[in-house]
Amino acid sequence: QVQLVESGGGSVQAGGSLRLSCAASGLTFSDYAMGWFRQAPGKEREYVASLSWSGASTYYEHSVRGRFIISRDNAKNMVYLQMNSLEPEDAAVYYCAADRGSSRPDYFTEDAMDSWGKGTLVTVSS
Question: Which of the four, 31, 36, 64, 121, has the lowest number of CB atoms within 10 Å?
Answer without folding.
Answer: 31
